[in-house]
Give the backbone structure.
Amino acid sequence: MIAGGNHYFCRMSKFFLRKKIGDRIINGHPWIFGNELGDSEGTADAGDIVEVYSYSGSFVGKGYYNPASQIRIRLLTRDKNEEINDEFFYKAIKSAWEYRQQIGYVENCRLIFGEADQLPALIIDKFNDYFVIQTLALGIDKWKGAIVAALEKIFNPKGIYERNDVPVRELEGLPQQKGFLSAPFDTNIILNENGLKFHVDIVNGQKTGYFLDQQDNRRAIQHIVKDANVLEAFCYTGTFSMHAAHYGAKSVLGLDISENAVNTARRNAELNGFEDICKFDAVNAFDVLKKWVTEGKRYDVVMLDPPAFTKSRENIQKAITGYKEINLRGMKLTKPGGFLVTASCTNLVPPEMFLDIIGMAAKDARRKLRQVTWQTQASDHPILWNIPTTQYLKFLIVQVL
Ligand code: SAH
């Protein structure tokens, strides 16, 4: 109990960081792990808002608490006077939207990118008038009602859908689930990007249905695909393939292991009038690329955007091997003077490590590389310098000499 506080503050429990813990947290990182906490005052239930203090007793911030999670507290504010209530979420979402508009994202964007928007474990993707939400921790899940109300108020959307069918929720003691958070609507929507149209299946698509993080990178292939024969492996719904056709490719072959993705890719080709240029096959890219290398096939441009290969640091070697293997094959399939477009979407492989892997693949392929483009996720997925994991996407174009 805090003597003299008002009723609200009276009930809020206090947690103290252990001695010598704090730099990362004081410098802006919102996560506090169980082993970083020492004393506490008062009792807190899972999902409650609690106050955090340094060892010596200075106020650090307020956040939500979950004793079942290794990340015991995630901070929402550093302001002692800011109350965490419906208004807090409204203001945070409104400000994130203003920022997206300021940096040029109007129609589609990742509206909330969790920690990078000071709303840990919350993801909201905006696909024109439709919104897809993920609440990946208990303490944010409890505010789902307030979050939906804020979206209704700011955007008056045509639909809001929850894609909480994500295993990470189980670490928080939450069930996997998906469903409408607004009145039901037709969840097969079309979005516009760079002058093209794409089908998005909000209910059954991967993650939130569409990979907005590559929206700017898709434009980066503009000058290298003209009159080219292009191969895209791990194409999902064919977004890069469609851009290649749009920018003048002669032929495009897209490969993905998912029948569903390939079917949508074909429908995207029809939607954009590229069904004669873009063909898609549902195959395992590892097997097929290996076979085509031995058969001596060659393409002007090879594009690769494989899945993360691992979700844990312990398994990092698996990711390194996977990236090296697939890029080695990609390079071998690229004509001398052709281009390799390659990406990696996990923060477990930092940018320098990714470049090292590509370098090793080039050495094994006995090819020299000339760098064309080296960038990251679209800036509607902000990178906070004091939260290194907010940078996760690597995107590289090299000429393969
Ligand atoms: N570039 C895409 C996203 C790719 S996500 C976009 O911007 O929209 C990675 C894709 O790899 C997924 O669609 C997944 O189905 C596919 N995939 C995973 N393993 C595969 C394999 N062994 N062979 C082919 N595709 C695979």
Q: What stands out?
A: The chain has ten helices and 20 strands. The pocket of S-adenosyl-L-homocysteine is lined by residues 206, 211, 214, 234, 236-237, 239-240, 255-258, 261, 284-286, 305-307 (CB under 6 Å).
